[in-house]
Prior knowledge:
Layout: H1 7-19, H2 28-40, H3 47-60, H4 66-80, H5 93-96, H6 100-110, H7 120-132, H8 137-158, H9 165-197
Amino acid sequence: MLSLIDVERFLANVTLSELQSLDVDSFPMLMAACLKFLAMFASHMPKPFTIQLFPELVCFLGAESNVVHSYAALCIEKLLLVKEEGGNCRYVAGDISPFLVQLMTYLFAALKSPESEENHYLMRCMMVVLGVAEISGEVSRPCIKGLADISVKFAEILETPFLTTTSLSLWLYLFDVDANAMFLSYLHLKQVFYRAST
């Protein structure tokens, strides 16, 4: 007879110890499997548990393995998209603000990794993070610089004679990310000017 697995207990007892390892580059396939498990069951994880795990997830974006940083991006995206029963987002800007600068820095750095220049998981994660985050002056500078860098890189990709649907869909993600970043920067500047004028 089959019995159901208690996902939360399995994550706490088995997966968590692996995800909290100090070296994000050790045992990449095991790390990727743990991240995939967390992404698959993102909606079943209690908020306090995942909030405690977010800093580790951000560190996995810095992994050398494309598979590991892709699953880390997928995991962060899935967690940030979880809705509560009333339709409200489970995670809000305040939940990710303590490590937002590091999160965006790792995302931009991962996009420069070999074979990750056209990584959908990283771009979608960036799009979702910017949709949830409140961009302050501290975060807007690295975001604008990072967006400028990847825009140049994507422009080079578009100049190649062999355009793929991957290249074109990355541009769609980039436009969405740029729009979010510009809107959030606008709101931040508006607050700064309002405070300065009063």
